[in-house]
Amino acid sequence: MPCDYKQLETIATDESAEFPELLARKVLLDDDIDVLQLVHAAGAVRYKTFGKKVKLHQINNIQNGLCPEDCGYCGQAKNANQNLKQYVMKGDDDIVKEAHEAKERGVFRYCMVASGRGPSDKTIDKLTKTVKRITDEVGIRTCLSIGLVNENQATRLKEAGLDRLNHNLNTSEQNTVNIVSTHTYQDRIDTLDAAKKAGLSTCSGMIVGMGETDDDVIEVAYKLREMNVPSIPINFLVPIEGNRISETDLTPERCLKILCLFRFINPTAEIRLGGGREGHLRGLQSLALYPANSVFVEGYLVTRGDATDPTVQMIQDAGFEVEGMAPQTCSMASQHFKIDDNPDVLKLEMTH
Asked: Residue 322: which H helix or E strand, with range?
């Protein structure tokens, strides 16, 4: 049966009704579905809550490596075959300075990430001071991703001024055992519950491209709706040679379908383009802004990513607006024809 795209839009925008699983499966499984019409329908759902606004988020890897966990996708895992620089948590001054720089770029939220299973109480002491300084001195919204956290720790961070705590589900409950053995899916759920009980906003999403099934993707999308998670980053596996999980068969079309699915099931949540967007969405990144309303800039934890300026240009070229940033003056048209950083427009063999 042909897909009724208007029906997808109508059902998804009815916040009192849950998006039917039958339609969710159709979004991912129907080979005849028209991706452009699907993106248009998801865009209408996104527009109802967020209009044309796009939020910029930036990650600061404040502690790298030194991790006892064995997540198969991660270059910082204890068994990862990577020659990564390891360092203990950065000092307050560095983290605050980088927060100032992020705000100057037009970043909406500053996301600090620390490797490890979870923070000690001593680490929480340090982080509460850092968060308070950023709140008082910079005035940018903050998010922490620091592993497994209990309610007491989350409460202390909330009292220091933290806005949001991130802890990704990453994949479905049944697929978690294929990804990691040093913690459980329930451990992740417990951390999100602790954050909510402490009054923190939560952020949790998925990494796609790790061998998950359609059912796994659908389960995560519905679980995040059930938990009323307001911020959902969708990451696309960056294949790092040497990691236990380093192969993926994602296509730009598959990525768009997944983003649309998360938008239909979570119509009022912030859907963010995360790690791997550049390599997996490629020339279709601007289309991804129809289901998504947020994007990471300036790279990720250990992998490179697009800088702020070209990302802002992409957003504006697609007719969207960066939240909190005045429209940038377009550069001269000739600058958009640079290839390999060569400003010459004419072919070399066509000039004297």
From this structure: strand 321-322
Return the CATH architecture of domain 5-350: Alpha-Beta Barrel (3.20)
Q: Do 92 and 100 touch, CB atoms closer than 8 A?
A: no
Looking at residue 332, its pLDDT comes to: 47
Per the model's pLDDT, the better-predicted residue between 172 and 326 turns out to be 172
Polymer length in residues for the chain: 352
What residues does each domain of the chain span?
Answer: 5-350
Separation of alpha carbons 266 and 206, rounded Å: 14
Structure tokens at 343: 């400003």
Nearest Cα neighbor of 290 from 262, 312, 313 is 262
Report the distance separating Cα 348 and Cα 344, nearest Å.
8
Residue 224: alpha-carbon gap to chain centroid: 14
Task: Provide DSSP, 246-269.
Answer: ------HHHHHHHHHHHHHHSTTS
Q: How far apart are CA 26 and CA 38, in angstroms?
A: 11
Global pTM exceeds 0.90:
yes
Contact assessment for residue 262 and residue 19, using Cβ atoms and an 8 Å cutoff? no
Cα distances from 117 to residues 133, 149, 194, 248, in angstroms, run 25, 9, 16, 26
pLDDT tens sequence across 3-29: 888 888 898 888 778 899 999 999 999
Q: pLDDT per residue over 103-126, tens digit each? A: 999 999 999 999 999 999 999 999
